[in-house]
Automatic annotation (TrEMBL):
Residues 3-238 form the ABC transporter domain. The keyword ATP-binding applies. It comes from the Bacteria. It holds the Pfam family ABC_tran. It comes from Lysobacter brunescens. This is ABC transporter ATP-binding protein. GO terms for molecular function: ATP binding. Keywords: ATP-binding, Nucleotide-binding, Transport.
Length: 256
């Protein structure tokens, strides 16, 4: 398994965000982690990357527990590519310079090799011609693709996408989801996609996990998810305002 989570409880500020989380992500798969805003999807990612330590339970990446010591954690993070909601591009650097940043920071490769790798990564996302453009000169979809090229710069075996479609129009969203699927297949990646964009994500996913009310309420194939009759899952999939998932944020459980 690329990621294995067992008996996980996550807390922030003394409040329980997620509890009793058991999750296995097979290598080579695309797993969609779905749920309403504020349900704890991004918090779960924080545990996978080691940003947030579990209050209970375990998190393993590639068969090894996520380390607590900083040096070991940094080594693990080199194997995890992350596409952030806000792209995280540095505005004073060109697209090519943004993609080159992790290569220059974490490797001793000669400049000529870095340039060649950057060109390959930009080509992979269809933006080789935009290498010299600054983030302010890019559309939202183009900026997201540059951020994706940067995320795969070090050839990480695990990719994490945190709300990759935020702020994108339907065409740009389709381009991004197609890229995620193609890169996962051609590069042999494992992908975790955290999103509330159900209908755009399920067509490329091998598995779907739904989080609501502090726990996992569904874990199975996209076909099983869409065929399910559970009222909580149906409320989320169908966008119903009334149901077992409250519209207003419910008070978080106090940690014991």
């Amino acid at each position: 398994m690329a990621v294995r989570v067992a008996g996980l409880r996550l807390e922030r500020g003394g409040r329980v965000i997620l509890r009793d989380i058991d999750l296995s992500v097979p290598q080579g798969s695309v797993t969609a982690i779905l749920g309403p805003s504020g349900c704890g999807k991004s918090t779960l990612l924080s545990a996978v990357t080691g940003e947030l330590s579990p209050a209970a339970g375990t998190v393993e990446v590639f068969g090894q527990p996520v380390p607590q010591r900083r040096r070991e954690l940094l080594e693990l993070r080199k194997r995890i590519g992350v596409l952030l909601q806000g792209n995280g591009l540095l505005t004073d650097l060109t697209a090519a310079e943004n993609v080159a940043l992790p290569l220059r920071t974490h490797t001793d490769l000669p400049p000529a090799v870095v340039r060649q790798l950057v060109e390959m990564k930009l080509h992979a996302v269809g933006l080789r011609a935009a290498a010299d453009l600054y983030p302010r000169e890019l559309s939202g979809g183009m900026a997201r693709r540059v951020a994706l090229a940067r995320a795969i710069a070090l050839d990480p075996p695990l990719m994490i996408y945190d709300e990759p479609l935020t702020g994108l129009d339907p065409i740009a969203s389709g381009v991004i989801m197609s890229l995620i699927s193609r890169l996962n297949r051609t590069l042999g990646l494992t992908s975790l996609i955290v999103t509330h964009h159900v209908h755009e994500t399920l067509p490329i996913a091998d598995r779907a996990v739904v989080i609501a009310n502090g726990g996992i309420v569904f874990d199975g194939t996209p076909a099983e998810l869409q065929a399910g009759a559970d009222p909580l899952v149906r409320q989320f999939l169908d966008g119903q305002p009334d149901g077992p998932i409250p519209f207003d944020a419910a008070p978080r459980t106090e940690a014991a």
